[in-house]
Give the backbone structure.
Amino acid sequence: MTDGENVVFSAGGAALYPAILAPEEVQDLAGRMEALISGRPGKRLVGMEWDGLVDAEGRIGRIAAGLIGMQAKPVRVAVLDKTVEANWSVAWHQDRTIALRERIETDGFGPWSTKDGICHVAPPVSLLAGMVTLRVHLDDCPADNAPLKVALGSHVLGFVAADRAARVAEAHPILSCLAEAGDIWAYSTLILHASERAQKAGRRRVLQVDYAAEDLPGNLEWRGLD
């Protein structure tokens, strides 16, 4: 990690951190994910032992700490597995929900939903603006393997209405987040992003980790990873 990478992140809302994980670490993570997803295209992960890897001082988490401070903590983890059988596209959008331990009505938080049995809510935009999402690549992701696309600079716009997302994104420089296994892409959680269907036969496994540095108001609690 370098100051230059952090400057790139601040300006555009996304930055590549290459070769963070060694091949054997990638293989180990991929094997652990395989046992958990059981052929599903994606799954939110709780109760998994990370051996400090995603903590603020860990190999993965220190990227988030460098961007939003040492108070950064992983608040949600999911694995995504795009394959020939599960090959989807995602239109331009923002990630707008966070995972909580329980529903407690709080000003500024809503609407509420449940995903994979986990309570989610849309928080105030100011909270999302302080978060960062890391995508840990477990497979190579060239241009034909459905790389994430981000609209550079869109992370500073606040909430963008869903019916305006594509139009707003296309008014910004579009970056395709190409990667090799072991690379990590960081992006502001609020950035407009999308992905297309993969054009090659293969897999595109990604471990996606959301980080926040803020405590929640009142009695709200981050769901966390346990």
Notes: The mean pLDDT is 92. The chain has one domain: 3-95+124-212. Residues 23-37 form the longest helix (15 residues).
